[in-house]
Amino acid sequence: MKKLWKFEWHSLYSFLGGLFVATDEEVQNLIGKEVWFGEYDGKHSEVHGTIEDGEITLVSDNPVVVEAVGNFGLNPLEFLENEDEY
User: What are phi and psi of 20, to 5 degrees?
Assistant: First the structure.
């Protein structure tokens, strides 16, 4: 079942975050994974790191809320590092 989640991450100069829709399994698979947001903080910033417990929290599992709000801001699922490239 899809749920609405909140991602919060503080980088050196800014706040990264957003609301995104995912299953429990997708969120659990994110924990401990490396994400790379590119030059989010400006040219040559290369914002990246590992998703840790507490950086993703459940907002709602109500289907009406999930459909109405949807994705807003950064979705960490879209920024997973491809481990096969290394």
Answer: -150, 160
